[in-house]
Amino acid sequence: MNDIKQEVEKIGSAYAESFNRQDATGIAALYADDGMHINPEGHERILNSSTEAYSKLDLITKTSFSMRSGL
Fold it and tell me: Which InterPro entries is this protein grouped with (predicted)?
């Protein structure tokens, strides 16, 4: 179980670092090519090459704050 927690923390830290650098490519690299994203409202999206574009859009709309990692 510790291995899983460490892996999740590692991914969370990488996401936060990429987000704070406004690095959409770094964020997109954390997602599987054939993964699925389900947002809190239940909308689904297959992750593929458009993941980077969605990350860029997300960064544009959320530039007024920064993220920090930690569970």
Answer: NTF2-like_dom_sf
- Provide the whole-model pTM: 0.60
Tokens (6 digits) for 6: 């460490």
* In the block, residue with structure tokens 């947002």: 39
Q: Where are the domains of the chain?
A: 2-61
Quick: pLDDT tens for 18-37: 888 888 888 878 877 777 77
CA 61 to mean position of chain CA atoms: 14
Domain boundaries 2-61, corresponding CATH code: 3.10.450.50
Buried (b) or exposed (e) across 19-45, using 16+ Cβ within 10 A? Answer: beeeebebbbeebeeeeeeeeeeeeee
